[in-house]
Amino acid sequence: MPLVSAMVSLMPTSPQPRATRSSSAPPSSAPLFSTPLSSTARSTLTRKQDRAVADRGELRAVLDAGLFCHLALVSGGSPLCVPTGYGRDGDTLYLHGSTGSGNVRTAAGGVDICVTVTILDGIVYARSLNNHTMNYRSAVVHGAARAVTEETERDRALRVISDHLAPGSWDYARRPDAKELAGVAVLALDLTEASVKVRGGDPAEQPADLDRDDVWAGVIDVRTVFDPPRAASYVPADLPVPPHIADRTRP
Question: What is the number of helices (H) and of strands (E) in the chain?
């Protein structure tokens, strides 16, 4: 599935929320955990613990706001981290890749993997270089993925992934045929073991630097902006942009 063209704009404005998911998506059939995020040895923050968020709703919000994730695992004795598409259904994260990928086959074999989603919200300029930082929202999920082979779940998972990246396209574009489906692997990862870390606001200055009125400090907010759609060269000039695409570029 091709990535949607997007522009990252450094502008002094508040981060904007993502466009709403397409209403054509079916309601989630997956159960939602009602408990807060539970700490494990892997999910407990060891640094900047004040930035930890134990609210499971915040985990879902970060995952829903991201457009792609990074999948990390050990393959062939070497660490590997690759970007890939995903989608969330309840408290299950679905990822997809090529059936010909050895890394995907490794991940489907029950080994421990780690999936991360990070949203950059701002560049923080302090009066000292040591206190320069970023405002962000991040989620880290640990666990063993399972291969999704049952036809009904696999079909739903592919729709979830499609609706996450390109909402509305599942009911508009041609769906994968048997040959195409044979080349796609789908993984499911429960959101049982996860952590969320959030940083926002002004720089954290050293007391001595607060009196340095000759050095500017502040934040440049960062947001993802969808540019107007650009038709492919082979699309007829009189074919209108469908609403589910056109609406995504509007404020």
Answer: 5, 11
